[in-house]
Design goal:
The chain has about 100 residues and is mainly alpha-helical. Helices cover about 80% and strands about 0% of the residues.
Length: about 100
């Protein structure tokens, strides 16, 4: 069984190999965009979240010393998943209707 790191390393190597083949890179990018468009269509709040969070992180990253930027990017990937779960739950809870009061 491959470890998660093995799978990530293989995925990164596969994507990096596309750099030598612009047509393949464009096909891969088109496929990824189609997948993301479907994902965002299924959950529009994901688009808003990634845009807002990405913009905030892009503003913060240049303020950090170069030695901290790599660590921040790595941590950001974990944080973004946790933040998405928390924010999505809070957002969804706002949309739920309160239970009707009991009828006496």
């Amino acid at each position: 069984m491959k470890t998660l790191k093995d799978i990530v390393d293989e995925h990164v190597a596969k994507k990096a190999a596309l750099a030598g083949d612009p047509e393949a890179m464009m096909r891969d990018a088109d496929e990824a965009k189609k997948r993301m468009d479907l994902r965002l269509k299924d959950d529009p709040s994901l688009h808003s979240f990634t845009r807002y969070y990405g913009e905030a992180m892009a503003a913060i990253l240049p303020m950090l010393p170069p030695t901290m930027q790599r660590m921040m990017l790595i941590d950001m990937l974990a944080v973004v998943v946790a933040e998405w779960e928390d924010i999505h739950l809070e957002y969804e809870n706002q949309l739920k209707t309160a239970p009707a009061p009991p009828v006496n």
